[in-house]
Each structure stands twice: as structure tokens, then as C-alpha cells.
From TrEMBL:
A single cellular component GO annotation: plasma membrane
Compartmental location: Cell membrane
Main location: membrane
Membrane topology: Multi-pass membrane protein
Any Pfam family matching the protein: 7tm_4
Transmembrane regions: 25-47, 59-81, 101-119, 139-161, 196-215, 236-260, 272-291
Protein name: Olfactory receptor
Length: 317
């Protein structure tokens, strides 16, 4: 029994800051991305909930997407940045378990929500007359509840199994957070059956929502192609292409991490792909989905106008 240690001792992250020459630059870049993600998503939530012009199904779903993005980037990045500043790289067994659960729940909820948001856009463009019925307030809440249920189910199912394996005496996680594939490499037991179960879960959580996204945007593009307005066609194509770029980046990186055979992986590649969908995507989502939108720009101008009117600048000294 000396080959492993199943006690609740700390894990050690090898992290992203491996090279002294670039660690400062990486730290600064991730800090900027993290702050941008928090501010951009926070602004989106504020505008959507305070401006009546944004009280529509699309923006209602976007506000929940922003909330999820703020939550799950905050489960990973602050710990990483603080560890760099303090010169430590450890995380307790309980902390690793909590991070693993929160990450799986939040990212799982986003997988489902993005797929259902694509359906919302499909209905709005391809069936506009039925949109108020097909995307009623009740349907929107069902979409939100279904997304959270799917994500929570994934977290409650996979986290206890992942963290119940006996771990080897070396508890160095060659990653920057407690992601399942990196943690499982430390297990001193056969994980083949569990990895099969995880693969099936990934088919349900990744391939099916991603297929819904692709099918929805394919129908949207087909509808847009037959538009009589050239200007409207260009605008719709530009919007769809930017959305598809972010969605493909998000789903593609996750599919690589969880569904591509281990023989095609390396620790450095795993870290890079994880950065794409855990750190970059929460920053890009509000910028791509909303900040370029005229409705959001108008809501921002109105909010600034209300702020200026309530805080007039006096010219008297």
C-alpha cells in the first residue's frame, strides 16, 4: 500500500507560470483578461436588468450567460493570480474538490445555454411571427433551469467519482486548476471505466449542444442568404460569423480536452486549450454577443445620461 496516498493532503499546481522570463507577462495578460471579463459581464448584467429596451428573451438569456461567465472565471483565475503573488502553488483536497465541482457545474450550464441561445436566434430570424409564443417568459425560465440542471448533474455525478480515486504519492497537477483529466493522471487505480462514462457525458454535454448551434446557424444563414436587402445580409453574416467563431472556440477547445484520445495530448497543449475556454471565452462573450450591438450601445448611452443628470457638474467655485 505504499504506492499511493489517499489522505487529504494538498495538491501542487505546476501552473502556467513555469518560465521566469515570461511569467510576469503571462500574469499581467491574465490579470487584464480577468478584469475585462468581470467589468464587461457586469456592465451587461446591469444594462439588461435596468434598461426596459433590453427586456427581451435574447438579452434575458445573455444576462444569465454573463453571470455564468463571471462565476466560472472566478473559480479559476483569482486563485492562480494570488498563488503567483504569494509564491505558492498548493491547493487543499477540499479546495480542489470544490473548484472541480464549481467548474464542471458552471461550464456545463454554459454548454447547454449556448446551444439553447442559438435556438433562440433561429426562432427570431426564421420564425419571427411565432417568436413571442416559442420564446415566452416561461420558456426562457425553462431554458435557464434546464441549463443549470444539466450543469449541476454533471458536477454532482463526476466530482465525487473523480476525487474518490486513490492518488499517488506525487500530487503534482501539471495544470493551472483542478481539471478532471489532469487530476486523473495522478490516480493509482484503473480509470478506464470512469473515462468511458466521462466520454458519454461529454457527448451529451458537448456534441449535442454544439450540433444544435451548428444546425441553428445553418438555418439562419440559409434564411439570411435569401434576404432581399444586401446591407441586411452583410450585417447578419458578420454577426453570425462572430458568434460562430466564439462558440467554435469554446466547444472546440473543450472537445479536444475531453474527447480526443490521450495519445494526442501533451500537458502544454492541454493548458493552452483550457485557457481558450476557461479564461478567454468569458471575456469574449460579452464583447462579441453584446457590446457590438446597437441596442446595448444605446442602453449604455442612456445609463450614462441618467448618471450625468443625477450628478450635475457645477461650474461655480
Amino acid at each position: 500500500m505504499e504506492g499511493y496516498n489517499a489522505s487529504s493532503t494538498d495538491f501542487t499546481f505546476l501552473g502556467l507560470f513555469n518560465t521566469e522570463e515570461t511569467s510576469g507577462l503571462v500574469f499581467a495578460t491574465i490579470s487584464v483578461i480577468f478584469l475585462t471579463a468581470l467589468v464587461a459581464n457586469g456592465i451587461m448584467i446591469f444594462l439588461i436588468h435596468t434598461d426596459p429596451h433590453l427586456h427581451t428573451p435574447m438579452y434575458f438569456l445573455l444576462s444569465h450567460l454573463s453571470f455564468i461567465d463571471m462565476m466560472y472565471i472566478s473559480t479559476i483565475v483569482p486563485k492562480m493570480l494570488i498563488d503567483y503573488l504569494l509564491g505558492q502553488r498548493t491547493i487543499s483536497f477540499v479546495g480542489c474538490t470544490a473548484q472541480h465541482f464549481l467548474y464542471l457545474t458552471l461550464v456545463g450550464a454554459e454548454f447547454f445555454l449556448l446551444g439553447l441561445m442559438a435556438y433562440d436566434r433561429y426562432v427570431a430570424i426564421c420564425n419571427p411571427l411565432r417568436y413571442p409564443v416559442l420564446m415566452s417568459r416561461r420558456i426562457c425560465w425553462i431554458i435557464i433551469a434546464g441549463s443549470w440542471f444539466g450543469g449541476s448533474l454533471d458536477g454532482f455525478l463526476l466530482t465525487p467519482i473523480t476525487m474518490s480515486f486513490p492518488f499517488c504519492s506525487s500530487r503534482e497537477i501539471n495544470h493551472f486548476f483542478c481539471e478532471a483529466p489532469a487530476v486523473l493522471k495522478l490516480a493509482c487505480a484503473d480509470t478506464a471505466l470512469y473515462e468511458t462514462v466521462m466520454y458519454v457525458c461529454c457527448v451529451l454535454m458537448l456534441l449535442i449542444p454544439f450540433s444544435v448551434v451548428i444546425a441553428s446557424y445553418a438555418r439562419i444563414l440559409a434564411t439570411v442568404y435569401h434576404m432581399s436587402s444586401v446591407e441586411g445580409r452583410k450585417k447578419a453574416f458578420a454577426t453570425c460569423s462572430s458568434h460562430m467563431t466564439v462558440v467554435t472556440l469554446f466547444y472546440g477547445a473543450a472537445i479536444y480536452t475531453y474527447m480526443v484520445p490521450h495519445s494526442y495530448h501533451s500537458p502544454s497543449q492541454d493548458k493552452i486549450f483550457s485557457v481558450f475556454y476557461t479564461i478567454l471565452t468569458p471575456m469574449l462573450n460579452p464583447l462579441i454577443y453584446s457590446m457590438r450591438n446597437k441596442d446595448v450601445a444605446g442602453a449604455l448611452r442612456r445609463a450614462l445620461g441618467r448618471f450625468k443628470s443625477s450628478h450635475p457638474v457645477s461650474g461655480d467655485f
